[in-house]
């Protein structure tokens, strides 16, 4: 069967990252990430003998009308779409146009938003047939090969204007059984690292997170039980990508690469033992690193680590159920810097209960700890998160247009802060942090090549919208 997999066109001009819990415009990192879920799903379908085409309309600059023409020429039996909360209205408009243009083609969508709100998603699309709930690979394969939908675990579907919800699918245990992502169906040169202009790929290392941060909706997609790709599989895939895709820069894709210390160390050791000359970036919690680990990461080619700092106020961290302390943040950053790693802080403003003083405390901490980069987000009550339920029950949500459920907008009005205050402080935070002379010097020194300077200029231009 012919199957078309689609990362839909930019909605209202916003280039959107759609990958699990990461639903942010490209300005957050001044780049769009390679579509890992689509590439893995494509590989699973192709291994089963299906003919597969993948289009990332954002980086390929494919308009909706052009996508319809591509679909007509290809004439697929199924079209599978990636989606995200901020772009869901536009994603569903794309589904509807494909369904109208190709009456014989069946449509399905996956992502956190439709998984968390299936009824609402069907309500905004007349042409959508199926919602794949949670991680999509095996469910997509069952879907395109089944004669009837009622026996497929992990989907919701519509029949004669009525929506049916099948039992959930258990999370995949044997992640090594997945084939390598079908990156050959994408143009790797369209995905570049910020400030270096080097092609990079996402590399899955583990799935699931056992923590219960109230702002996070990741469990809707990958669940809470930690599951890991084996060390051999991870490093074999690195070697495969070097040889077959010509890419040696990677973003290790996981909620936190360091959830299992022994596993993370074994991956680093295997990279070192194979003498692989690569560069990579990972995320971690501040309570899950130590000097030995970070030094080993550096030896294995890691050049940057991102920490979920979230807030400089212990009271707010506790309200978030983050489970970390400010002292752990200080120690983690110091250890990473001593190991020679660049460090990125992920910070949020506007959490319910946060005051103006808390905002200031958080920004002061970010400046004090001398991060190489800081991402300042507005708190968003993404569907599927505990915060979404709290915000609904508390009447805190000021805008129900999904376009504004995005981290450069504030839509929560609390007793302490209103959205305008949060957005204004966020813009101020970017200016205060990045316009410091030492921060400017640090950034300029990181630009080693003409290509890096070119990328930096493009990044600065695109960053304006993200930073407000």
Describe this structure in words.
With 468 residues, this protein is an alpha/beta fold. It is 39% helix and 16% strand. The chain has helices at 36-47, 64-74, 88-101, 112-116, 118-123, 137-145, 218-222, 231-245, 261-273, 291-299, 314-320, 326-338, 356-368, 386-394, 419-434, 437-445, 450-467, and strands spanning 2-7, 51-56, 78-82, 106-110, 130-132, 155-159, 162-165, 201-204, 206-207, 227-228, 249-253, 279-284, 302-310, 342-349, 373-378. The strands form 3 sheets. Strands 2-1-3-4-5-6-7 form a 7-stranded mixed β-sheet, with helices on both faces. Helix 13 links the parallel strand 14 and strand 15. The mean pLDDT is 93.
Quick synopsis:
It is built from 17 helices and 15 strands. The chain is an alpha/beta fold. The strands form 3 sheets. The chain has a 7-stranded mixed beta sheet, with helices on both faces. It has a 6-stranded parallel beta sheet with strand order 8-11-12-13-14-15. Strands 9-10 form a two-stranded antiparallel ribbon.
Strand order of the largest sheet: 2-1-3-4-5-6-7
Mean pLDDT over the residues: 93
Radius of gyration, rounded?
Answer: 22 Å
CATH class group of the largest domain: Alpha Beta
| Approximate strand percentage | 15-25%
- Architecture of the largest domain in CATH? Alpha-Beta Horseshoe
Structural class: alpha/beta
- How many separate domains make up the residues? 2
Query: What is the strand tally?
Result: 15
Biggest sheet layout: 7 strands, mixed
| Cα distance spanning the termini | 46 Å
| Superfamily (CATH H level) name of the largest domain | tm_1862 like domain
Annotated CATH topology of the largest domain: pyruvate-formate lyase- activating enzyme
Count helical runs. Answer: 17
């Amino acid at each position: 069967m012919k199957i078309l997999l689609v990362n839909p066109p930019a909605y209202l001009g916003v280039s959107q990252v759609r990958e699990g819990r990461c639903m942010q415009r490209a300005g957050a990192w001044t780049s769009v990430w390679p579509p890992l879920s689509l590439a893995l799903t494509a590989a699973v379908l192709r291994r089963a003998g299906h003919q597969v085409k993948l289009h990332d309309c954002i980086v390929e600059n494919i308009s909706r009308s052009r996508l319809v023409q591509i679909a007509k020429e290809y004439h697929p039996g199924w079209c599978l779409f990636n989606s995200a909360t901020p772009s869901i209205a536009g994603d569903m408009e794309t589904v509807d146009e494909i369904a109208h243009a190709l009456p014989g083609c069946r449509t399905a969508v996956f992502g956190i938003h439709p998984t968390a709100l299936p009824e609402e998603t069907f309500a905004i699309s007349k042409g959508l047939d199926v919602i794949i709930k949670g991680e999509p690979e095996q469910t997509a394969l069952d879907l395109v090969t089944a004669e009837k939908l009622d026996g497929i675990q992990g989907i919701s579907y519509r029949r004669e204007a009525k929506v049916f919800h099948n039992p959930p699918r258990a999370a995949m245990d044997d992640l090594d059984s997945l084939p390598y992502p079908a990156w050959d169906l994408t143009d790797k040169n369209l995905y570049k690292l910020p400030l270096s202009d080097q092609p990079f790929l996402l590399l899955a290392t583990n799935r699931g997170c056992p923590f219960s941060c109230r702002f996070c909706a990741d469990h809707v997609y990958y669940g809470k039980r930690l599951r890991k790709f084996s060390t051999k599989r991870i490093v074999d895939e690195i070697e495969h990508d070097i040889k077959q895709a010509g890419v040696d820069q990677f973003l290790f894709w996981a909620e936190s690469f360091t959830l299992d210390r022994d596993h993370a160390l074994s991956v680093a050791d295997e990279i070192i033992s194979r003498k692989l000359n690569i560069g990579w970036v990972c995320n971690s919690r501040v309570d899950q690193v130590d000097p030995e680990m970070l030094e080993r990461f550096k030896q294995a080619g890691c050049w940057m680590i991102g920490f979920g700092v979230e807030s400089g106020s212990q009271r707010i961290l506790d309200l978030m159920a983050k489970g970390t302390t400010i002292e752990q943040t200080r120690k983690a950053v110091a250890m990473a810097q001593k190991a020679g790693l660049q460090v990125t802080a992920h910070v949020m403003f506007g959490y319910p209960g946060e005051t103006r003083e808390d905002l200031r405390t958080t920004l002061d901490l970010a400046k004090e700890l001398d991060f190489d980069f800081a991402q300042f987000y507005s708190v968003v009550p993404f569907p599927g998160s505990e915060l979404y339920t709290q915000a609904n029950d508390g009447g805190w949500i000021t805008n129900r247009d999904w376009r504004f459920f995005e981290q450069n907008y504030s839509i929560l009005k609390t007793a302490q802060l209103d959205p305008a205050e949060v957005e204004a402080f966020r813009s101020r935070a970017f200016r205060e942090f990045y316009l410091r002379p030492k921060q400017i010097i640090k950034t300029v020194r990181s630009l080693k090549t003409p290509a890096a300077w070119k990328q930096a200029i493009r990044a600065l231009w695109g960053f304006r919208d993200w930073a407000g």
